[in-house]
Amino acid sequence: MAKSLLIVGVGFMGGSFALALRRGGFKGSIYGVDIKPETIDKAEELGVIDGGGTELGLVQEIEPDYVVLASPVRTFRGIVRGVKPFLKEGAVITDLGSVKGKLVYELEEQLGSRFVGSHPIAGTEKSGVEHSFAELFEGKKVVITPTESTDKEALEEVVSLWKLTGGRVEFMDPMLHDWVFGAVSHLPHAIAFALIDALIEMSDGVDLFKYPGGGFKDFTRIAASDPVMWRDIFLENRNNVLKAIEVYENSLQKLKELIEDEREEELTEYLKEAKQRRLSLE
User: Fold this and answer.
1) Please, what is the end-to-end C-alpha distance for the chain in angstroms?
2) Please, is 232 exposed, middle or buried when counting C-beta atoms within 10 Å of its C-beta (0-12, 13-18, 19+)?
3) Which site from 53, 73, 172, 252 is most exposed, i.e. has the minimal number of CB atoms within 10 Å?
4) Is the pLDDT assigned to residue 212 strictly greater than 90?
């Protein structure tokens, strides 16, 4: 019997997840809940979902086998309180959030062992269901963060869903996840937003944004990301983000001193090491 799935937050990520599942062969119905009725209308019009609404009570009506949290991470707790009374027995709950850590344990405490945290390492600076596309997760890492309490069957089902999307599943401890992605994802976004802010401050008499080169556009592309989503990520992973910013400030200070003191050889080595590390990613 085909299973049904409900996505809470039918934006770019939630919409892409739905499309990717269909592309991968998911045969069940996919529904959506979003605070904006126009988003539900657009998602239905585009064939992203089969139906939906703006109220979490829809869970009681459709009794989904899977519930996927795809809204900004700081909304998760309230959503879970709203859907919990209506969940049918055996329903599996997962998410697409960029923060795990203590949030996973809090949601697990509310929902029980059938909550499985997951984080696809995929995305663009675009937002809105109209930008969703089915290939977003193809070949991309998906980090799943089970705990000692996670139900094995629920875990297997979430892994199966991600495999349908084309994602490559890896497992990671929830707390380790937030340290890792605080450094490799959240810090770069913070830097991109801060760089834009710096140029706003420096545009005194000359609008610097009239003269962007390719490097500037490449580096700051992610600063065009959804502000609400990133506000929530920064605040939810506050401690790790702050630690990462402090380390970055130290590295920037080191670079500043090398330039200030005209220490050519050391500056060359600093830049060379950075280049080599970057090339190793290719």
Assistant:
1) 44
2) buried
3) 252
4) no
pLDDT for 124-164, tens place per residue? 888 899 999 999 999 999 999 999 999 999 999 999 999 99
Q: Please return the burial class of 27, using the count of CB atoms within 10 Å of its CB with bins 0-12, 13-18 and 19+.
A: exposed
Q: Locate tokens 């269909």: which residue?
A: 22
Cα–Cα distance between 111 and 126 in angstroms, integer? 31
15 touches 38 (CB < 8 A)? no
Q: What does each C-alpha distance from 140 to 117, 137, 143, 162, 279 come to in angstroms?
A: 17, 5, 10, 10, 19
Strand partners, 94: 68, 116
Helix 227-236 × helix 187-202 angle, to 10°: 120
**How far apart are alpha carbons 63 and 52 in whole angstroms?**
13
Counting Cβ atoms within 10 Å, is residue 247 exposed (0-12), middle (13-18) or buried (19+)?
A: exposed
Structure tokens at 72: 């900004």
For residue 114, the SS3 value is coil
The domains found in the chain, sorted by start residue, are: 5-172 (3.40.50.720), 176-279 (1.10.3660.10)
Angle at 100 between CA 31 and CA 89, to 5 degrees: 45
